[in-house]
Design goal:
Oligomer: single chain
Order of helices and strands: HHHEEEHHEHEEH
Radius of gyration: 19 Å
Strand order of the largest sheet: 3-6-4-5
Shape: globular
CATH class: Alpha Beta
Number of strands: 6
CATH superfamily: PurM-like, N-terminal domain
Distance between the termini: 47 Å
Structural class: alpha+beta
CATH architecture: 2-Layer Sandwich
Length: 187
């Protein structure tokens, strides 16, 4: 049996603060996401960004044997360019496009995208640029940005630096019987 913690929110907040995590800053930064990302949402998106899981109910009516396709990617050393230029929206767009391209190679259409941002400290202007880039690319690709993870990890990154990763889920748009032939082309 799992026992619920009797600690209150302020004790938890204090523990995070002792670890160098600014909970109030995290909440402030995340509170501004909803308006930006909802432009990527269609009727398939249930709920809103910010929970522990993104909810997506695809309309697969008429599809015979639907197959989901997934990919995870990063942008690598392009981050150094973003840091040097203090321009972050384009590296976020690159991340979404890398993921979209990865599943397009096998004939899949994107359904939704999830991001990961790990940083020493959340910098609101940088975070805003990243969300702007994710949103723009998701909208252009026709996929929903339904969530992600934002981690403040003091001591893991240099001040002003972060890491990005993205996960995309799509669906196979061809007949399942054609999958073997397509997979041989990309292997």
């Amino acid at each position: 049996m799992i026992k619920k913690s009797k600690s209150n929110g302020s004790a938890s907040k204090k523990a995070y603060a002792q670890a160098g995590v600014d909970v109030d800053l995290g909440n402030l930064v995340k509170s501004k996401i909803h308006q930006q990302v909802k432009v990527t949402h269609g009727p398939e998106v249930l709920g809103k960004v910010g929970g522990f899981g993104g909810l997506f109910m695809p309309n697969l009516a008429g599809m015979k044997e639907p197959v989901l396709v997934s990919s995870v990617d990063g942008v690598g050393t392009k981050l150094k360019i973003a840091f040097a230029l203090d321009k972050h929206d384009t590296v976020a767009q690159d991340l979404v496009n890398h993921c979209v391209d990865d599943i397009a190679v096998v004939g899949a259409r994107p359904l939704f995208f999830l991001d990961y941002i790990g940083a020493e400290r959340l910098e609101p202007p940088v975070f805003g640029q990243l969300i702007k880039g994710f949103t723009k690319a998701c909208k252009e690709a026709g996929c929903a940005l339904i969530g992600g993870e934002t981690a403040q990890m003091p001591g893991m990154y240099n001040r002003g630096e972060y890491d990005l990763a993205g996960t995309i889920i799509g669906w196979w748009i061809a007949a399942r019987s054609s999958m073997a032939a397509a997979s041989k082309k990309v292997m």
